[in-house]
């Protein structure tokens, strides 16, 4: 995933945010990585409390700010 992000080949990110803490795992956006300017385009909350957030890359002019 990170190599696709570096090559600007990701059109959309759909993140499932679960209301619990596991404490470990791989990060999608590592510390010290390149800035990822994203724009939230949709959210849905399931009956179990999971939030599905859809993001798209921000415009180049917006990411610079």
- Report the sheet-strand fraction: 25-35%
Number of DSSP helical runs: 2
Give start-end ranges of low-pLDDT stretches: 60-65
Query: Taking Cα atoms only, what radius of gyration do you get, to the nearest Å?
Result: 13 Å
Mean pLDDT: 81
Number of strand segments: 3
Q: Which range best describes the helical content: under 10%, 10-25%, 25-40%, 40-55%, 55-70% or over 70%?
A: 10-25%
What's the assembly state of these chains?
single chain
Kindly report the spatial arrangement of strands forming the biggest sheet.
Answer: 1-3-2
Order of helices and strands: HEEEH
Q: In brief, what are we looking at here?
A:
It is flat and about 35 Å long. It has helices at residues 2-6, 60-63; strands at 13-17, 38-45, 51-57. It has 2 helices and 3 strands.
Defining traits:
65 residues, alpha+beta, three-stranded antiparallel beta sheet, 3 strands, flat, disordered C terminus
How would you characterize the overall build of this protein?
The chain is of the alpha+beta class and 65 residues long. It contains two helices and three strands. It has a three-stranded antiparallel β-sheet, with no helix packed on it.
Please write out the topology:
Layout: H1 2-6, E1 13-17, E2 38-45, E3 51-57, H2 60-63
Antiparallel strand pairs: 1-3, 2-3
């Amino acid at each position: 995933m990170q190599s696709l992000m570096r090559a600007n080949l990701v059109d959309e990110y759909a993140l499932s945010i679960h209301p619990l803490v596991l404490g470990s795992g791989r990060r999608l956006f590592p510390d010290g990585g390149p800035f990822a300017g994203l724009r939230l385009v949709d959210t849905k909350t399931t009956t179990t409390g999971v939030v599905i957030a859809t993001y798209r890359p921000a415009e180049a002019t917006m990411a610079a700010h």
